[in-house]
């Protein structure tokens, strides 16, 4: 336990409420808040278009010394974006979250902080142009490189609107992320390939997400339901693209009795319509405990066509001991071995083959599931992240003191 006297002042900037932890990013920030509050004297600053909720208020009261919450009507965010598009070269999402009134209010807080942690590119503008202590440390919680993710998405997405947004943003983001990573003392990413890419511009370090310890207590069902599942927040464009691709290209060629569960909160009209188009699709929406259902399925699929970074839901289902059939885009950040820890399927034919294989070969299914669980246990731990983050911050303070 670190005493109050020893604790340095840390400021964490977020664009989403960490609680309730119902999406991959919220799970990450929920745990990051808990880690930072154990190590430091933590102030949490949230600039968001989300309404405040009681669970988040109670969580921040418990896990921070101070917190500030800034929200505005939606039109203010859209107005910021339009101004950014016409009058700025900054990424649109940076403009979306940039309010001059907030910038002024944060000046004294940033100036007095020892450690400043902007999370995601969109919060960094509040840090880059603020005066701060000469020996303060900036730890850029990059998570995913939006610049690289958007560049990949341009050729993959079918939406004309999103194709144009990705095209504009990818160029702006690359220039902006390059600047942030070069200025930050350390930048933390969850994807090994993206971490390696940004090393030429700054101190980019790999820090993958963790999973809930209780997931290791689930047993994989020996006689699973004749079903497969996709698990993820369903208002996230890469998840929408993946599910639509699977429903169109894979599901019609599986045995008619195979059910496809789409598990995750905030499904939009285009996802809900799939239930009417395909009799063997069930859209569950948000479930308080999705793991009972997921552990009973034949396999979980993540046929990601766009996006980047680690899919938290893939980590969670692997921790369950479930077989994951993944595109290489979803598999590569995890660092496992194809056909040992998961199954990589790039084509519809490969997806069909692997689903049938899991049905016909329960021994192989159990073997891959156990390997998956062991891989996650060894490499994806929030406790391990706490230790790594503490070491990174201490090293950067030592470097700063040497310079000064």
- Distance linking N and C termini: 29 Å
**Overall mean pLDDT:** 94
Shape: globular
Strand content: 15-25%
Oligomerization: single chain
Count of individual beta strands: 13
- CATH secondary-structure class of the largest domain: Alpha Beta
Count of structural domains: 2
What CATH architecture of the largest domain do you see? 3-Layer(aba) Sandwich
Q: What is the share of helical residues?
A: 40-55%
- Sheet/helix structural class: alpha/beta
Strand order of the largest sheet: 3-2-1-4-5-6-7
Q: Radius of gyration over alpha carbons?
A: 22 Å
CATH homologous superfamily descriptor of the largest domain? Glycogen Phosphorylase B
Regions with pLDDT < 50 over 5+ consecutive residues? none
Instruction: Provide a count of the helices.
Output: 18
Largest sheet: 7 strands, parallel
Classify the fold: give the CATH topology of the largest domain.
Answer: Rossmann fold
Pfam families: Glyco_trans_1_4 (PF13692)
Organism: Moheibacter sediminis
InterPro entries: Glycosyltransferase_grp1 (IPR050194)
Protein name: Glycosyltransferase involved in cell wall bisynthesis
Q: Would you write up a description of this structure?
A:
The protein is α/β, with parallel strands linked by helices. It folds into two domains: 9-210 and 381-403, Rossmann fold (3-Layer(aba) Sandwich), CATH 3.40.50; 213-379, Glycogen Phosphorylase B (Rossmann fold), CATH 3.40.50.2000. Helices cover 48% and strands 15% of the residues. The strands form two sheets. A seven-stranded parallel β-sheet has the order 3-2-1-4-5-6-7, with helices on both faces. It has a six-stranded parallel β-sheet with strand order 10-9-8-11-12-13, sandwiched between helices. Helix 2 (54-63) links the parallel strand 2 and strand 3. Helix 7 packs antiparallel against helix 8.
């Amino acid at each position: 336990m670190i005493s109050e006297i020893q604790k340095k002042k840390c400021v964490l900037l977020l664009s989403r409420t960490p609680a309730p932890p119902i999406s991959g990013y919220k799970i990450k920030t929920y745990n990051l808040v808990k880690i930072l509050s154990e190590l430091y004297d933590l102030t949490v600053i949230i600039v968001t278009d989300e309404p405040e909720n009681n669970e988040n208020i109670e969580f921040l009261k418990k896990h921070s010394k101070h917190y500030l919450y800034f929200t505005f009507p939606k039109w203010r965010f859209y107005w910021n974006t339009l101004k950014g598009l016409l009058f700025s070269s900054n990424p649109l999402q940076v403009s979306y979250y940039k309010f001059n009134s907030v910038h002024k209010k944060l000046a004294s807080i940033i100036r007095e902080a020892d450690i400043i942690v902007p999370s995601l590119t969109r919060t960094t503008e509040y840090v880059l142009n603020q005066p701060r202590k000469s020996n303060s440390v900036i730890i850029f919680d990059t998570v995913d490189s939006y610049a690289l993710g958007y560049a990949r998405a341009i050729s993959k997405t079918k939406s004309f609107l999103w194709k144009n947004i990705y095209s504009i943003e990818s160029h702006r983001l690359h220039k902006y992320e390059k600047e942030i990573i070069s200025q930050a003392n350390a930048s933390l990413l969850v994807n090994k390939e993206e971490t390696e890419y940004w090393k030429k511009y700054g101190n980019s370090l790999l820090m993958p997400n963790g999973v809930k310890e209780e997931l290791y207590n689930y047993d994989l069902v020996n006689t699973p339901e004749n079903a497969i599942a996709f698990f993820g927040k369903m208002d996230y464009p890469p998840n929408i693209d993946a599910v639509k691709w699977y429903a169109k290209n894979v599901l019609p060629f599986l045995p008619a009795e195979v059910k496809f569960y789409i598990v995750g909160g905030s499904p939009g009209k285009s996802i809900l319509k799939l239930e009417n188009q395909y009799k063997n699709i069930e859209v569950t929406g948000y479930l308080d405990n999705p793991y009972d259902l997921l552990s009973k399925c034949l396999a979980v699929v993540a046929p990601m066509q766009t996006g980047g970074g680690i899919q938290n839901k893939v980590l969670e289902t692997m921790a369950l001991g479930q077989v994951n059939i993944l595109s290489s885009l979803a598999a590569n950040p995890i660092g496992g071995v194809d056909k040992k820890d998961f199954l990589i399927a790039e084509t519809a034919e490969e997806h069909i083959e692997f689903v049938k294989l899991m049905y016909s070969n329960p021994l192989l299914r159990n073997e891959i599931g156990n390997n998956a669980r062991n891989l996650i246990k060894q490499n994806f731990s929030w406790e391990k992240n706490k230790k790594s983050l503490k070491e990174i911050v201490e090293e950067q303070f030592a470097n700063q003191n040497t310079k000064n």
